[in-house]
Amino acid sequence: MAEALVTEAAVTEPNSLVDTGSLVDGDGSAGVAQSVRNAPTSEELLVQEGDVAGDYLERLLDLVDYDGDIDLDVEAGRAMVSIDGGEDLVKLVGTRGVVLEALQELTRLAVQQQTGARSRLMLDIAQWRSARRNDLSKLSRSTAERVRDGGEPVRLEPMTPFERKIVHDAVAEVDGVQSESDGEEPQRCVVVFPAT
After folding, report:
1. Cα→Cα distances 63→2, 56, 60, 67, 85, Å
2. Can you tell me the distance from the alpha carbon of 116 to that of 173, in angstroms, rounded to the nearest whole number?
3. Sign of torsion, CA 22 25 31 32?
């Protein structure tokens, strides 16, 4: 409870990010301007997100008594956090990554509470996302080539937004086909069909 109050105070602390006020111009006239001297750059904010996420996940690993090394990075305009090393980490991924997705959302909420900004950080555990990205890219390319050669649309299995983006990106690399998402969550899937 005390930690939550301290965190809330840090987020709502005046002048912590942007200092606004009246400034006196060189000619003595008063003007209103915003000073962003104290505002972190977007790169600094992403590094801060990674640090907050790393601390949060380190406490989680201590709580469940799992071993793991936390690596923080900034890539493609978002904080990237990965946990590797421990044998038990696969339990934090879950079937088809459902536990990983939930942990990512909890970590994003922890970061948002601390920084006051909505986070888009990506969490990977035991290299599950990177392996899934490779598998989906191969599946998507072969599906796109099959659709291009056969002319019949193919509906893939339901996927998370992360997975659908990988599929769309891979299909876009194959000439003569296109893709779109169809359906409602959690049954939303990608349909690959010949380009018109």
Report:
1. 19, 11, 5, 11, 17
2. 38
3. negative
124 by DSSP, 3-state: which?
Answer: strand
Amino acid at 168: H
Q: Which domains does the chain have, with CATH numbers?
A: 42-126 (3.30.300.20), 130-194 (3.30.1370.50)
Is the dihedral angle over the CA atoms 95, 96, 100, 104 positive or is it negative? negative
Whole-model pTM: value is 0.69
The pair phi, psi for residue 83, each rounded to 5°, is -120, 125
Residues 110-153 pLDDT 10s = 999 999 989 999 999 999 999 999 999 999 999 999 999 998 99
CA 130 vs CA 57, 71, 80: distances in Å: 19, 14, 12
pLDDT digits (tens, 9 = 90+) for 142-182: 999 999 999 899 999 999 888 999 999 999 999 999 999 99
Tokens linked to 112: 């948002």
